[in-house]
From TrEMBL:
GO terms for MF: DNA-binding transcription factor activity
Pfam families, per the entry: MarR_2 (PF12802)
Protein name: MarR family transcriptional regulator
InterPro entries: HTH_MarR-typ, MarR/SlyA-like, WH-like_DNA-bd_sf, WH_DNA-bd_sf
UniProt organism field: Amycolatopsis acidicola
One of the GO biological process terms: response to stress
Every HTH marR-type domain range: 8-140
SUPFAM superfamilies listed in its UniProt record: Winged helix' DNA-binding domain
Superkingdom of this protein's organism: Bacteria
Amino acid sequence: MPELPSLDTDAGFLLARAGGRAIRELNRALEPSGLRSRHYTVLMAAAERGGLSQRELSTLLGIDPSAVVALVDDLEHAGLVRRDAHPGDRRTRLVVLTGKGKTAFRRAADHGTKTENNLLAPLDPAERATLISLLRRIAR
């Protein structure tokens, strides 16, 4: 008979617990800026990719398209992103960082890095690299 999972060995539980802790701590660190972790990931994606459609953001971030619309609306209202016309498809708008958005992302990234370093403090550099590699494989 196979061994029953436990809270100490169930990968799904441990991933959810670690992810929840990471989000809570990042939200706490971002609070003074008025951003939340989901806003931060939209800013990160736009900074990294140089402009994405809301559909692409939805797929990349693994969140519902209607949630992406609300997040982009929040960021646009704050002046951190704008919706530019897609050069090849006039029906599609690309989410692009503004100058203010680039500055806000840099500040948020500082908080993100500090939060990540705090979370991963128990791991040595090689273990961190292994964890990132494994998480990347799972996430894809």
